[in-house]
């Protein structure tokens, strides 16, 4: 069970939703989040940061190394990419705003059911496939084939 973690970007433009696998790592492992609009981005440092489609996540690597060490994961293994790709601290869904958008879009489609039943079923069917394709094409890390 993963609890919902929300983190505002440094500039306060957007809120990113995270999912930390089995809550092994707390929300505080995410030190800072920069959205594409954030102007004061630090220089990219692969030892503490992960870049995804214009977003930048800065992790508290000391905390991550310490806590994952308790699970016998060696510190050489623990990198920002590892935290993200192994789902210890990653977007909830495919992108930082995936969950919110998904809920909103679903509501719009459900509203369509009242107007046009046939269209509703067609839209529902293609919706998740189309979304996934869009994430892949946009270049989101989690949507790329492993
Ligand atoms: Zn921002």
Fold and architecture overview:
It is a single chain. This protein is an alpha+beta fold and 146 residues long. The protein has 2 domains: 4-91, no CATH class; 98-143. It is 38% helix and 18% strand. It has 4 helices and 6 strands; from the N terminus they run βββββααβαα. The protein has helices spanning 61-69, 80-85, 98-115, 117-138; strands at residues 4-8, 15-19, 30-34, 49-52, 55-59, 90-91. β4 (49-52) and β5 form a beta hairpin. Bound molecules: zinc ion.
**Average pLDDT, to the nearest integer?**
94
Strand content: 15-25%
Domain module tally = 2
User: How far apart are the termini?
Assistant: 24 Å
Order of helices and strands: EEEEEHHEHH
Major sheet: arrangement of strands: 1-2-6
Overall outline: elongated
Q: Biggest sheet: strands, sense, closure?
A: 3 strands, antiparallel
Q: Pick out the low-confidence regions.
A: none
